[in-house]
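Researcher: I've been going back and forth with a colleague about how Transmembrane protein 17 might be arranged in three dimensions. Neither of us has a model we trust, so I'd like an independent prediction. The organism is Paralvinella palmiformis, in case that matters for your notes. Sequence below.
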Amino acid sequence: MADRMRNAVTSVTNVVFPPSKSATDPQQQHLMKSGLDYVSSLPLQMALYFNVFYYPLWLITCIVGLQAKYEALSVLYKIIIIAILVVMTVVEIIRLSLGYIGNLTEKVPELAGFWLLTLLLQTPLSLFLLLNEDTVILPLERAVHIILVIFVIFEVFMGYFAIRALVNHQVTKFHLQQFTNLEEISSEEYIQLQGGYRHEHRA
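Model: Here is an independent structure prediction for Transmembrane protein 17. You can compare it with whatever you and your colleague have in mind.
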């Protein structure tokens, strides 16, 4: 099940983040061959690091604010806000974990999962809490919501560029590995391969 999910996320990533032409550039492959090349995004990692410490503060502020304005809310918005806080907390734990693993270990499926959760869930929910006046937004709540939205939008942009860089890097590594394998073939094996190729064409 986990392998299927990883394959599905990888397929979506290849469509959304197609590798650039520079990934197959021989000059780029030569530069990679000369040493180790790390493509983890430092700005994204810094945003994730501060996000981990900021989210508990945001959640506590939201809970205190909800308690203070609970009687002023309609029944519908009481349910909506509680549901949003629960969903955002669960998603945030999964999202930040995937972001840390994907960025530090340079794994495309995990980083793509982090980016999709950020774009499709955290961003709309954060904007809903910030912009919907029917939720009776308190001044302190508005302040913490603005900071969270800045975090989320920044991570969406940085995550996009981090995934593109990682996809291009892995495509380059793949082509470099193929080139290295060809170099390791001995002259005798090359003659044997050539002889078999000519024999097949004569037949």
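Researcher: What would you highlight for our discussion?
Model: I'd start with this: Residues 2-16+39-169 form one domain. After that, consider the following. The CA atoms of residues 91 and 121 lie 8 Å apart.
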